[in-house]
């Protein structure tokens, strides 16, 4: 590091999405900032998350289209087959492209950066690289790591996680996917589409991020076309000569490997937070103000995956910016109202807009829905599967949220997210022209159904 002094206005721990966003925000107000980072360079999104996973999903969905080619008169599709080593090589090439941009950014920040494990000596002193740094405040943005359930720990050589998946040169023929959150849903379906025999396992009946039972049912129906699904179960595991045997009282499957997608845990255990007197939850996360991101009145702020909450990029960016601003300005910047947006890139795509769980708990909310089975554009393209459920205030007709599994759901969700941010009513949204034939007409049907239900009282 070029500097010789160790007194800072702000120290940021972690150079992932949240940490880099915090640094950019802090540099608007002071040049006296230090970034401490330990581990591989490159955000989780670029290295092991959003970007490489979408590259694999793109290949899987592209290959999956061959099933429908005969229906439109395209012959010879039976000769098409996936080459998994080549697909994974291409995924790594794309991954490395995105990571290289992060590496270039990190390289430009060397004057602000120290490599090493950070540990708090006090709320305003942090040790790293065998040096002690003093700071007025700090931001924790240390990210997360894959959680491995206890019954799988002894089978480490046969486990795959999102941190190791994209380093593989090939994939086994039989896989279990444990955990049906966003990562589990996406990867289980992609593996299955690429010809792998997949058994998907979830502890709960609900999958993904949805709360609505009808949308949950729609997601399961879509996935069941390509794989076996075990819900509301937690199987035992043992090694056999044929592979890993996963079994319950009524089900069993032998697999070559297990993709563990049982969630991620925040990387906080090396920071020494408890020695500061901070109370933490079972995952080591200190309680913090979700508006200011400040930790228990200390000059310490937290952002991104380290919060153990919604692990999505736009949230990490906003939290990093907010934490840095508040650390330098005594907590004046609160979260923007964007209504909440979560998207899972299954086929069809799954999306949740707004606080739908809250909406479903209240009697003053009405619903509207549409099924894509006979939706014109979807039927033309052979993608006529899916459902939308909208939620709106019974009296004023203001949009409260939506849960979707449908073709182009990511675009429909962005459309509705704008409606939430602008605090629009169903009637106002329906003033928008809906071009024919488009998938957006399916959304129009759901809006009209919600309006009808509202007018019925």
Task: Please explain how this structure is put together.
It is a single chain. By secondary structure, this protein is of the alpha/beta class. It has twelve helices and 22 strands. Strands 1, 2, 3, 4, 5, 6 and 17 form a seven-stranded mixed β-sheet that branches. It has a five-stranded parallel β-sheet with strand order 8-15-9-10-11, with helices on one face. The protein has a five-stranded antiparallel β-sheet with strand order 18-19-22-21-20, sandwiched between helices.
SSE blueprint and pairings:
Elements: E1 7-13, H1 17-26, E2 33-37, H2 44-47, H3 50-64, H4 84-107, E3 113-115, E4 119-122, E5 125-128, E6 131-140, E7 144-146, E8 159-160, E9 174-178, H5 182-193, E10 197-201, H6 213-224, E11 228-230, E12 236-240, E13 243-247, E14 252-255, E15 257-260, E16 264-266, E17 300-302, H7 313-329, E18 341-344, E19 349-354, H8 356-360, E20 365-371, H9 376-380, E21 387-393, E22 399-406, H10 409-421, H11 426-430, H12 440-455
Helix pairs in contact: 1-7, 3-4, 3-5
Observed structural traits:
single chain; 457 residues; alpha/beta; five-stranded parallel beta sheet; 22 strands
Concise synopsis of the structure shown:
With 457 residues, the chain is of the alpha/beta class. The protein has helices spanning 17-26, 44-47, 50-64, 84-107, 182-193, 213-224, 313-329, 356-360, 376-380, 409-421, 426-430, 440-455, and strands at 7-13, 33-37, 113-115, 119-122, 125-128, 131-140, 144-146, 159-160, 174-178, 197-201, 228-230, 236-240, 243-247, 252-255, 257-260, 264-266, 300-302, 341-344, 349-354, 365-371, 387-393, 399-406.
């Amino acid at each position: 590091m070029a500097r010789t002094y160790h007194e800072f206005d702000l120290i940021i721990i972690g150079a992932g999405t949240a940490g880099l966003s915090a640094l950019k925000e802090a540099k608007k107000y002071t040049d006296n900032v230090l970034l401490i980072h330990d581990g591989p360079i490159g955000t989780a999104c670029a290295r092991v998350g959003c970007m490489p996973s979408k590259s694999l999903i793109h290949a899987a969905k592209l290959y999956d289209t061959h099933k429908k080619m005969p229906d439109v008169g395209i012959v010879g599709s039976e000769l098409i087959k996936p080459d998994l080593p080549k697909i994974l090589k291409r995924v790594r090439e794309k991954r490395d492209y995105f990571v290289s941009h992060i590496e270039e950014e990190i390289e430009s920040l060397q004057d602000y950066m120290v490599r090493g494990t950070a540990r708090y000596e006090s709320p305003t002193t942090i040790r790293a690289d065998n040096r002690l740094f003093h700071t007025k405040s700090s931001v924790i943005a240390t990210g997360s790591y894959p959680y491995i359930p206890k019954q799988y720990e002894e089978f480490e050589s046969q486990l795959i996680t999102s941190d190791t998946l994209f380093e593989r040169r090939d994939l086994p023929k039989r896989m279990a996917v444990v955990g049906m959150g966003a990562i589990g849903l996406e990867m289980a379906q992609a593996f299955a589409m690429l010809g792998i025999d997949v058994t998907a396992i979830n502890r709960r009946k609900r999958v993904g991020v949805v709360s609505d039972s009808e949308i949950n049912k729609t997601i399961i129906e879509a996935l069941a076309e390509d794989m076996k699904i075990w819900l509301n179960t937690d199987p035992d595991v043992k090694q056999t000569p044929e592979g890993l045997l996963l079994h319950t009282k009524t089900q069993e499957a032998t697999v070559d490997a297990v993709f563990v997608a049982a969630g991620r845990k925040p990387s906080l255990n090396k920071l020494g937070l408890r020695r500061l007197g901070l109370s933490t939850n079972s995952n080591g996360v200190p309680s913090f103000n979700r508006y200011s991101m400040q930790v228990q009145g200390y000059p310490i702020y937290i952002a991104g995956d380290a919060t153990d909450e919604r692990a999505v990029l736009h949230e990490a960016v906003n939290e990093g910016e907010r934490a840095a601003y508040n650390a330098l300005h005594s907590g004046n910047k609160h979260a923007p109202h964007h209504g909440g947006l979560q998207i899972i890139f299954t086929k069809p795509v799954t999306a949740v807009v707004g606080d739908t769980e809250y909406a479903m708990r209240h009697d003053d909310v009405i619903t509207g829905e549409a099924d894509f089975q006979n939706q014109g554009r979807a039927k033309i393209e052979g993608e006529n599967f899916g459902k939308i459920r909208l939620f709106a205030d019974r009296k004023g007709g203001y949009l409260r949220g939506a849960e979707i599994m449908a073709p182009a759901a990511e675009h429909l969700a962005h459309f509705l997210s704008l409606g939430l941010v602008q605090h629009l009513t169903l009637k106002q949204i329906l003033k928008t022209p809906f071009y024919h034939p488009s998938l957006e007409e399916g959304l129009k049907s759901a809006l009209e159904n919600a309006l009808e239900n509202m007018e019925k009282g």
